[in-house]
Amino acid sequence: MHTTCTNLICCFFSIAGCNVNLTSRTICNTRIPANAEHATTPKRYFSCTGAPLRANETFDDFRAREERKEQEYAQQQQQQASATSSTGSTTTHSDSFSSTGGDQQEPIDPDVERTKAMILDAALAYVQSHGWSKQAIAAGAEAVNYPSVAHGLFPRGGIELVHHFYQQCNLKLVEHLKQQTADVDKVPNPSEFARKAIEFRLRLLEPYLKYWPQALGLMTLPPNAPHSLANMLTMVDDICYYAGDRSVDFNWYTRRIGLACIFKTTELYMLQDNSTGFEKTWQFLERRMEEASLVHEFLVKSEGATHQLQNAVGSAFTTARNILGLNFDRR
Known about the structure:
By secondary structure, this protein is an all-alpha fold. It is 66% helix and 0% strand.
């Protein structure tokens, strides 16, 4: 009877692809002869999962051990899946943030831009009482029948009012230059034309001159400097263009860089000038223009204008223009 049961169980595990050591402690009291155990090469006994069955280990112990391994493996897989999903969600969040806050920009609404320009135009009347600040913008919004909280349209604060004023002055300068060159084919004296253009542009600061140092401080802040530099370079390029400068060589750079330096130095001098009608400022401007003409003549005609200097100045101006994304197309 015992032998029959043993044979049936062995047959069952053989069909299942398993090789199980059936000892007297697990199946029956019949022992395998000692000679039979040592007559062949030592064997490794495997379960259905392919794991070796340890010596003197019951089938129940083996099954419990295998179940524990399966549970540990399942826990490891679950932990890896959780880590992968959390990493994926973080990556998705960062990607979505970068896509919304980085390269993509919201489309410009013309109606909103017109409203903002109207508020900033009205806010200029309050610069003398509030300076270049959000308070001036809020007062300008109320002046055109908008709530004071409309200053939220200008998250950068007073610098947006400064840029708006600067751009408006540049547009007025362009209109003035167009009128001056409308009836002439060529400007007879480009240096004098540029001097008068700078004087016209600086006179636009007179109503706000008391508060202009605050504006200069805002423009020199690192986040605001690129836009401020772009406004100035656009202005000096307009002056040079309408003065008749069509050069495509080293002269193009020297004239614009020199004119920008003259404008800034005269602007700073004007802030401290107490003379009537800023007479000393215009004399200072005239002297700087004369010096610039001499320096320009030396750089262009003298052997001192080496190729290294030309390349250095040209590369600097080109780099600045590319960084700022300036558009030098004529109006």
